[in-house]
Amino acid sequence: MSRKKTPKSKGGSAPATSALPATHGSQPVRPGTARPGPEAPPNRPPQPGRSSLGGGGDFYDVAFKVMLVGDSGVGKTCLLVRFKDGAFLAGTFISTVGIDFRNKVLDVDGMKVKLQIWDTAGQERFRSVTHAYYRDAHALLLLYDVTNKASFDSIQAWLTEIQEYAQHDVVLMLLGNKVDSAQERVVKREDGEKLAKEYGLPFMETSAKMGLNVDLAFMAIAKELKQRCMKAPSEPRFQLHDYIKREGRGASCCKP
Ligand SMILES: Nc1nc2c(ncn2[C@@H]2O[C@H](COP(=O)(O)OP(=O)(O)OP(=O)(O)O)[C@@H](O)[C@H]2O)c(=O)[nH]1
Ligand SMILES: [Mg+2]
Questions:
Q1: Which atom of ligand 1 is nearest to the CA of 122?
Q2: pTM, 2 dp
């Protein structure tokens, strides 16, 4: 079940009452390790090396699950749609119901990395549904809205929840979304940076509307996850913080 205006090439969805994730842990899925079958249902890992129904027939070498979390209205669905389809969902806000997912395969340094991205409902009433999916996530993108102070104030509560339900080694990134809305901004960039530093999190400001830093956020996650499971001993470790610092763009280039 999902917002009704979801456009083409949907990945899949799970109603609030769907089965919970299986107990396969948060191991990445590598070629030759997954069981055969159709596209991964909500409670199974994506399968490597097969044509992806939601991903336009893409093949891949390794797959990971990424979850988008944060208060209702911060722009999780828009961020995902921007990344997947390169479009922005303008118009009436339709809140996500339950949980939904989309697949996208990225080329990461010559390797096909499939991200199965779970778009969760930010509304409190769906929180128990979201909890059930945390433990299978390899990475979490935690969003707040720079025009909504309450969504920023909720970040600590989200971090507590993540600590409780997610894997201890989950890759986590904090994103301050909607930086195109400069007039309405109430959370300064420095406040986001300070909070991120406090918790040792990589941090970026994004705009799903303008596409600012959206691809970069997912690419950074994909690089980190790929390195974690594929890195040769001689290879230098991927530095996520440095990468987004170097590649990230500021909100100043994001005037609507
Ligand atoms: N200006 C601006 N508006 C945005 C941006 N991202 C999302 N929005 C708007 O914010 C509203 C909420 O966006 P959604 O992506 O549906 O929010 P959500 O986090 O998925 O909300 P839930 O599904 O309820 O958890 C919509 O009206 C979007 O058009 C952005 O980057 N800039
Ligand atoms: Mg949504």
A1: 25
A2: 0.82
